[in-house]
């Protein structure tokens, strides 16, 4: 990969999209009001003054102090105030009553949706004593627990009951509470605990033997129903890395890969194979350094781990985001969310891109300014920003966005209680702002979109679609260079990234990732334009150098590999058996291609059988694993016999990605 001049207009559009995703947001108006000062005598202020300032920190300082822009910048930032959707006890009470009515009509899924709304909007214990005597949240959880019991979900029902007790629900003399707890344990299969809870119910009900008998009948009915209802939830975990443990220099990586190159190298630092890699090997399982959910999924996915929400847990103060568990909520509220909580709606209204949110998250999750500055050096060393090549107008927009985000941090007391309400930053605030500004530049080139597989029909592959739900930044994964024919396939489990090899890669060879433009889907000219303008480099990978055709234009037969050891020359596929005896024009040896042809036929058969196995219905996990093994063998065999591109092998590589993705973030809708 080599740096080149970009298409200025298209590059500008790409840059703008990484900063501001909505034209209608108020940040665009903020910029325009400031930019109006670049007229008349100040028309060249950006080029003659701003661009000549040597560092991000000093450029940020400049916009607060230079009279050309300072008045407009400070005047706007003074108006930054919290904007968020708070709790509403009356609304929660209304939703709870609706859920109870739906429960009585046996409309369980609708009742669950409404009960979740009641939980999310309910204020904490004692906040609004005029409604439910301050127990709105506890009663909302109590109601949702009953819905889960009716849905035979004892685990989530028990979690809600326990949380309701923590939120003030009276339990010491509450026989009904222990009756529900007994039902939860019966559904979970913990019969001993179910009996203990039933005894407590019996005591608190005044030793009512009739009521105890009814409860025991209910417990038995629930056990029978649970046994008759197949469980659809699957516990997923990160796969084991190939090789002997983790890599010492690449976070979350296998010991079978290593770093090569340097900052001075035109290709920068990049990943190569430290040992021969076969298809399907796990070479990276990396948790996100920072990750943010797209705003449109705030109501359906956990803001912390990106899990699909079933029993959402709310922030104590806002209704803007939800969490899948108390653990995720407490971790978020102890770190980043306490600074973002009251400003999320404001940031969404600004029209800023999700990359801006990730940049902010890199700061807020650190927790303190001192920690930000400590991490900032590492971030600058790891992620390229290309500040020296950035257009001054684009850089100024990012500086202005930094000022807005810095103001949100000031108001959220990230720097502690300030002695003034004025927006001018202190030296420490300027240093944190410089880290933010650097992140706003580097994320354009280093962020990864996090996706889930959405299954909308009975068949898990035929109806599967990739849905991008958020964006993450990964220190290890950022070291992989791009090629239009990647050597790895990327999947996710929560916010953790998993990289499997998709084809054999010999020791010492580059292990390439793909930044989006794949030769199968885009012609060379469009790929090159997108990469130049979005990532600022010219791709010189093999697919570009040889101008490989797209999938629908690939030839029926691939080029065969010269069987002479160490040669590897690409030879035309023989159209007749008599042409299989030939002389290689590279190694000058007489060769026979019979073995290559047979290996290619065997490879095609393995790949086809694996794909057909994926299409079978119903499809069990064991069959998926069997399909993976067949396709891995087929892909490996192809690499011995021929050179890419080859349609059946490419289909198998994409099918492998689908199989691995099915073991990660996969949800049925």
What does this structure look like?
With 669 residues, the protein is an alpha+beta fold. The chain has 24 helices and 16 strands. The chain has helices at 8-19, 26-35, 45-50, 56-65, 70-77, 89-104, 108-121, 136-150, 154-166, 175-188, 191-204, 209-228, 326-334, 337-340, 344-350, 354-364, 369-382, 392-411, 427-446, 524-535, 542-545, 594-615, 621-641, 647-662; strands at residues 257-261, 269-273, 282-286, 290-293, 313-314, 322-323, 447-455, 464-473, 488-493, 496-501, 559-561, 570-571, 581-583, 590-592, 642-643, 666-668. It has a four-stranded mixed beta sheet with strand order 4-8-7-16. Strands 3-10-9 form a three-stranded antiparallel beta sheet, with helices on one face. Helix 1 (8-19) runs parallel beside helix 18, helix 4 crosses helix 5 and helix 16 crosses helix 19 (427-446). It is flat and about 100 Å long. It starts with 7 loop residues before the first helix and ends with a strand.
């Amino acid at each position: 990969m080599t740096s080149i001049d970009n298409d200025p207009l298209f590059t500008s559009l790409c840059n703008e999209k990484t900063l501001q995703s909505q034209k209608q947001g108020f940040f665009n108006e903020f910029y325009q009001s400031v930019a109006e000062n670049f007229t008349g005598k100040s028309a060249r202020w950006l080029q003659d003054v701003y661009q000549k300032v040597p560092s991000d920190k000093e450029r940020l300082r400049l916009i607060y102090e230079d009279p050309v822009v300072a008045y407009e910048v400070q005047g706007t930032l003074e108006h930054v105030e919290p904007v968020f959707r708070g709790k509403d006890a009356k609304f929660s009470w209304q939703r709870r009553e609706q859920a109870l009515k739906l429960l009585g009509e046996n409309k369980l899924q609708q009742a669950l949706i409404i009960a979740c709304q009641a939980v999310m909007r309910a204020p904490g214990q004692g906040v609004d004593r005029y409604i439910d005597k301050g127990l709105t949240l506890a009663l909302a959880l109590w109601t949702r627990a009953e819905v889960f019991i009716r849905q035979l979900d004892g685990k989530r029902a028990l979690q809600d009951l326990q949380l309701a007790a923590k939120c003030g629900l009276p339990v010491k003399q509450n026989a009904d509470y222990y009756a529900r707890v007994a039902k939860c344990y019966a559904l979970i299969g913990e019969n001993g605990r179910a009996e203990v809870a039933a005894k407590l119910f019996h005591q608190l009900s005044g030793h009512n033997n009739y009521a105890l008998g009814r409860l025991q009948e209910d417990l038995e009915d629930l056990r029978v129903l649970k046994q008759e209802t197949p469980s659809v939830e699957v516990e997923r975990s990160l796969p084991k890395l190939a090789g002997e443990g983790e890599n010492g220099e690449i976070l979350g990586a296998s010991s079978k890969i290593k770093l090569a190159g340097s900052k001075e190298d035109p290709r920068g630092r990049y990943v190569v194979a430290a040992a021969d890699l076969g298809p399907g090997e796990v070479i990276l399982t990396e948790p996100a350094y920072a990750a943010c959910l797209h705003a449109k999924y705030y109501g359906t996915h956990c803001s912390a781990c990106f899990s699909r929400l079933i029993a959402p847990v709310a922030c104590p103060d806002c209704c803007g985001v939800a969490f899948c568990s108390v653990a995720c909520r407490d971790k978020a509220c102890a770190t980043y969310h306490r600074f973002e909580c009251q400003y999320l709606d404001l940031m969404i209204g600004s029209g800023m891109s999700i990359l801006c949110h990730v940049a902010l998250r890199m700061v807020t999750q650190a927790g303190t300014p001192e920690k930000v500055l400590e991490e900032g050096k590492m971030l600058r060393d790891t992620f390229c920003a290309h500040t020296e090549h950035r257009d001054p107008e684009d850089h100024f927009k990012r500086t202005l966005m930094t000022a807005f985000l810095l103001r949100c941090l000031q108001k959220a007391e990230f720097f502690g209680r300030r002695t003034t309400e004025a927006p001018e930053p202190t030296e420490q605030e300027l240093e944190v702002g410089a880290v933010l500004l650097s992140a706003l530049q580097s994320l354009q080139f280093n962020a990864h979109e996090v996706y889930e597989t959405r299954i909308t029909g009975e068949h898990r592959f035929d109806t599967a679609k990739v849905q991008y739900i958020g964006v993450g930044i990964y220190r290890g994964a950022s070291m992989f260079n791009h090629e239009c024919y990647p050597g790895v396939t990327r999947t996710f489990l929560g916010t953790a990234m998993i990289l499997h090899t998709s084809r054999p890669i010999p020791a010492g060879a580059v292990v390439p990732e793909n930044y989006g433009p794949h030769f199968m889907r885009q012609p060379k000219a469009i790929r090159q334009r997108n990469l130049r303008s979005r990532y600022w480099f010219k791709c010189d990978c093999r697919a570009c150098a040889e101008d490989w055709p797209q999938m629908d234009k690939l030839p029926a037969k691939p080029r065969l590999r010269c069987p002479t050891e160490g040669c590897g020359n690409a030879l035309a596929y023989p159209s007749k058996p008599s042409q299989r005896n030939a002389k290689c024009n590279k190694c000058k040896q007489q060769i026979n291609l019979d073995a290559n042809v047979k290996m290619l036929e065997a490879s095609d058969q393995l790949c086809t059988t694996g794909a057909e196995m994926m299409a079978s219905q119903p499809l069990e996990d064991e069959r998926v694993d069997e399909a993976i093994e067949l396709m891995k063998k087929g892909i490996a065999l192809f690499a011995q016999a021929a050179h890419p591109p080859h349609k059946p092998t490419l289909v198998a590589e994409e099918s492998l990605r689908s199989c691995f993705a099915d073991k990660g973030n996969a949800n049925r809708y």
